[in-house]
Design a protein that fits this description.
By secondary structure, this protein is α/β, with parallel strands linked by helices. The chain is built from 16 helices and 24 strands. β3 and β4 form a beta hairpin. It starts with a helix and ends in an 8-residue tail after the last strand.
Length: 485
């Protein structure tokens, strides 16, 4: 596993070095428990060093011709393309992603890099009129300076890159903290890609650490002006609170409890295919996953029979096997939590059409129905292979159930009438919704983000410019102003 051990370091100011903390983060393969790497944690002092290095390097980078910045990103894209088999293998080993999942993540990563290349040339200023005679108002788009990025374990390479690449393209420097379970794919692998692409030292720093070591240093530090966080709503609320107290901007991409709605005129077989993928891709460890499958009673029996049959046919096992469709959950804590949730929900009166069991970190799929309307499981995010089938009578009830959640990230509506689907979709309080498709989608130029407890702000396309730049007003008086004293 030299790939992992070679990258098992902190990356600060262009140097690869061990952390100075007194304990190690151990990187495990979640399927077989193999130790991939051991990384001494970064201390609060090293986080400070990373931010200070970013601060020193940023201004020269902002002053660099954007065409030159674009060239670095173009090289990074070529490196990812050349090393795709190696990166895919790392995704399989470090986070238990199947071959299909690794290919899906890398496809999106390359698309987002292509968009970041274009972002380098995107910021545009304005000249605005003034009521004062002789005055010209210029509005410039300028980098925010230094961006702190905190990424999750489920799509670590993509979701780190998704903030890091645009922030760099727009003239910022970055300090990245990957999730402790995916320190390589979500952190130091990106550092290696950009180092080899010729990014100047100090512009991207990666600190592998934990809140137990550094507390809120990453958030409270005076250097970063924007924090981009992807993760749970519980942690996201803490990030928002700390950043607000320190007058920092945040972009929060948080959890979800998406509903996939099957109306009475839907193509049932197609809706089944969309629902199975939307719920079980990457073992359900996806913020956009369809936690709740809402089905009109007119098609409930047909849908449920076909859905359960398809789920039962999914192959659970070693993610390194190309035939595997359901791999392991990220760690034993998550596997135990999901198994306990299923057991408790059944004990409280739900019917298990499939009752998944745990074998180490492998958890086979569950399908639950007959849930009480006030069942807590209907309102929470389930980060695992568990589907909830909920019948409804008519559009109004479907909308009411779909909105009965503190989240609002994604969703889908299946119907034989597209405009009917759009009308229903407009009534769902969510940042994104898809008609006759799955719930798991991300595209480089479309605003991505949620409502309610699913986050603040948007990423992708022009939203990246909003997230990682700020506006600066410079007025020019070509004549002479008149002052009252």
């Amino acid at each position: 596993m030299s790939f992992f051990t070679d990258l098992a370091h902190q990356y600060i100011d262009g140097e690869w070095r061990p952390g100075k903390g007194s304990w190690d983060i151990i990187d495990f393969n979640p399927f077989d428990g193999e130790k991939l790497a051991s990384i001494p944690v970064a201390t609060a002092e090293e986080v400070d060093q990373a931010y200070r290095a970013a601060e020193r390097a940023q201004q020269a980078w902002a002053d660099t011709n954007p065409y030159a910045r674009r060239t670095v990103l173009e090289k990074a894209l070529r490196i990812v393309e050349e090393r795709e088999p190696e990166i895919a293998g790392a995704i399989v080993a470090e986070l238990g992603g199947t071959h299909l999942k690794a290919a899906f993540e890398l496809h999106l990563a390359k698309e987002f890099l292509r968009e970041a290349i274009q972002l380098a040339l995107r910021p545009a200023g304005q000249i605005l009129p003034s009521p004062t005679e002789g005055k010209e108002n210029r509005v410039y788009r300028v980098p925010v300076g230094v961006v702190g990025v905190i990424s999750p374990f489920n799509f670590p390479f993509l979701l780190s890159l998704k903030s890091v690449a645009p922030a760099l393209a727009l003239g910022n420097a970055v300090v990245l903290k990957p999730h402790q379970n995916t320190p390589i794919c979500g952190g130091t692998l990106l550092a290696k890609v950009f180092e080899d692409a010729g990014l100047p030292a100090g512009l991207l720093n990666v600190v592998v650490t934990d809140i137990a070591e550094i507390g809120d240093t990453l958030l409270e530090h005076p250097v970063p002006q924007v924090i981009s966080f992807t993760g749970s709503d519980k942690v996201g609320r803490h990030v928002a609170t700390v950043c607000a107290a320190n007058l920092k901007r945040v972009v929060l991409e948080l959890g979800g409890n998406s509903a996939l709605i099957v109306l009475d005129d839907a193509d049932v077989e197609y809706a089944v295919d969309a629902a199975v993928f939307s719920r079980y891709v990457h073992q359900g460890q996806v913020c956009m996953a369809a936690n709740r499958i809402l089905v009109d009673r007119a098609v409930e029996a047909e849908f449920t029979e076909k859905f359960v049959a398809k789920v039962a046919s999914l192959t659970v096992g070693d993610p390194a096997d190309p035939a595997t469709q359901i791999g392991p959950l990220i760690n034993s804590s998550q596997a135990e939590s999901i198994s306990r949730l299923v057991d408790e929900t059944v004990e409280s009166g739900a019917t298990a059409l499939l009752h998944g069991r745990a074998d180490g970190n492998l958890v086979s799929p569950s399908v639950l129905t007959g849930l009480a309307a006030d069942s807590p499981v209907l309102r929470q995010e389930i980060f695992g292979p568990v589907a909830l089938i909920v019948p409804f009578d008519g559009e109004d009830e479907a909308v009411r159930i779909a909105n009965d959640t503190p989240y609002g990230l994604s969703g889908a509506v299946h119907t034989g009438n597209i405009e009917r689907g759009v009308r229903v979709g407009q009534r769902i309080h969510t940042g994104m919704i898809h008609i006759n498709d799955g719930t798991v989608h991300d595209e480089p130029i479309v605003p991505f983000g949620g409502e309610k407890g699913s986050g603040l702000g948007r990423l992708n396309g022009e939203s990246m410019v909003e997230a990682f730049t700020t506006q600066k007003w410079i007025s020019v008086q070509h004549g002479r102003s008149q002052f009252p004293f």
